[in-house]
Amino acid sequence: MSIRDLADFHHPVSTLFAEIKSKIDYEPFALSKEQVEHFEEYGYVTNVKIYDEEQVDILRAELDKIQAPDHPARELFYEFHGNHSTNPDTVLFHSLGHWRISEAFHDALWNPAFTKPASQLLGDKPVRFWHDQLFCKPAGHGGVVAWHQDYSYWIRTVPMQHLTCWIGLDDASTENGCLNYVPSSHRWGLLKRLELGGEMDALFEQLDEEQRAQIKPVPMELKKGHACFHHPLMVHGSYENKSERSRRAMVLNVFADGTISDTDDIMLRGTDIRVPKGQPLNTKYFPLIYPVN
C-alpha cells in the first residue's frame, strides 16, 4: 500500500480551518499592540485562541490514531518516543513529524489563527514551518519536560529568527503539568542544551547569581484550544502530571523566511533531510505558511 506524504502539499487539504482568500481575511486573527509589546518585553504572550471545540476534538481523535504503534504511516515521523522520560516511573509521549501523516495536523500549519500572530511576533515577516511536536502526559504519572531553550536545539539554522507556539489539546493547569516560563529569560543569551526528559532543574546550574535571582516561574494555565507563543531563547519547562486528567499539547515551531542552514549535516534528527550550508531552508519540508504580500 502506498503511503501519502502530506509534506508534498503546501496548502490545506481539508476545510478544518478558516479559508484565506485575501490578506484582509487574516485581520480577525491579529494580536493587539499590547500583546506584541508584552512578547517583546517578557519573551512570551499567552491565552491566544487557536482552535474551537470542534477543531480540538478532531485533533485529539487524530492524535489517538497516529499514536498507534501499527499506524501504516509510522515511517514518516521524524521522531517517535512512546516514552521520552528518563524517569522509569513517569511517561512523556513525544513525537515530531506528524504533519506529514494527519490531514488535521498538516492543515494546522496554515490555520490563520496561528500564522497571523506568528508573522507579527517575527516582525511582520513571511513565515516558514520548521517542525511540529506532540507532548502528552498521561494522568497520574506524566513526566517532566526539563527547563530548556528551544534555540539550543536549532543552532544549525541562522540567523536566530525563530518562534514557538504551544497549544493545549486539554485544559492545562499547574496540577496536570502545564507549561512554565521564566519571564524575560530570553535576554540571558544561549545556554547549553540538555536532555528534554531529564532532570528538571539541570539547566539552572549554568546560571550566574544574578540570573538565579530572576528565576520566578509563571505557569501558563490555559483552556484547551488556547496557546502561548514564546521567543527561541525563553527558558521554559513543565512539571509532572500527578492529577487525574491527561495533559496533551501540540507545538508548532517556525522561522522567518530567509533563514539558512549552518551545517551540511542533517537538519532534523531522525531524518535524512539536508540543506547545504549557506543555503536557505525553502525545500518541501519547510513550506511557506504565511506570505506577507
The CATH homologous superfamily? q2cbj1_9rhob like domain
Number of strands: 14
CATH topology: Jelly Rolls
The low-confidence runs, each spanning 5 or more residues with pLDDT under 50, are none
Tell me about the largest β-sheet.
8 strands, antiparallel
Number of alpha- plus pi-helical segments: 5
At CATH's second level, what is the architecture? Answer: Sandwich
The SS-based structural class is alpha+beta
Overall average pLDDT:
94
Q: Which class in CATH terms?
A: Mainly Beta
Nearest-angstrom radius of gyration?
Answer: 18 Å
Helix content: 10-25%
Distance between the termini: 40 Å
Principal-axes shape call = globular
Structural domains: how many: 1
Percent of residues in β-strands: 15-25%
SSE string: HEHEEHHEEEEEHEEEEEE
Tags for this entry?
single chain, alpha+beta, Jelly Rolls
Explain what you see.
The mean pLDDT is 94. The chain has one domain (42-67, 74-290): Jelly Rolls, CATH 2.60.120.620. It has helices at residues 33-42, 53-66, 103-107, 112-121, 209-212, and strands spanning 44-49, 79-81, 93-96, 127-137, 145-148, 157-158, 162-168, 179-181, 218-219, 226-230, 236-238, 247-256, 260-261, 288-290. The chain is α+β, with helices and mostly antiparallel strands and 293 residues long. The longest helix is centred in the first third of the chain and has 14 residues, at 53-66. The chain starts with 32 loop residues before the first helix and ends with a strand. The strands form 3 sheets. Strands 1, 2, 3, 4, 7, 10, 12 and 14 form an 8-stranded antiparallel beta sheet that branches. It holds the Pfam family PhyH. One of its GO terms (molecular function) is dioxygenase activity.
